[in-house]
Amino acid sequence: MERKAFIGIDMGGTHSRLCVLDKEKNILHLEKLLTLKLISNGLIEGISSLIDEKVHKLNLQVERVIIGLPATISKERTSVLSTPNLKVDAHEFDSLVSSLESQLNCKVELERDVNLQLAYDVEALKLADKNVIGCYVGTGFGFSVWINNDIYVGANGVAGEIGHIPYGDHGKVCGCGKKGC
User: Fold this and answer.
1) Rounded to 5 degrees, what are φ and ψ at 91?
2) Which positions are tagged coiled coil (predicted)?
3) Model pTM greater than 0.70?
4) What tens digit of pLDDT does each residue of 75-101 get?
């Protein structure tokens, strides 16, 4: 008998993580891998192969998949508007949700990675009734806003996304291709 499960993927600029949870939020599988390795054969192929392997190995029926990205995401949470720290062409994200939904027969959603992190932190620290701003540092900087017991995404779905912060015209080349971001 297949177990019902939820899959979360956190794609970072350097590392990606996969977590498989059952309905009671017990961790069934946790894995960390290099993002470049995950997407080496293409974004959709990499993610679908990773999920497919776990579904078969653990005998799962996937109820929902959520993919956290260091990106600006559409308000509908189905497409990526910008992701300078992932070495993936944005058009590869265009059919990611529909491809995975068709393959897995479940809901697939994209979300800003920092929104997922802040939601976790708010729950873990019991801050749901507070207004909170989260600032996270990884390959880049990410900001998220929690207001009225929920992540605030704003009118266009990008609240908290502050974009690049110029600090001079020197240094390493940014994921966007420019220096000083």
Assistant:
1) -65, -20
2) none
3) yes
4) 888 888 888 888 887 678 888 999 999
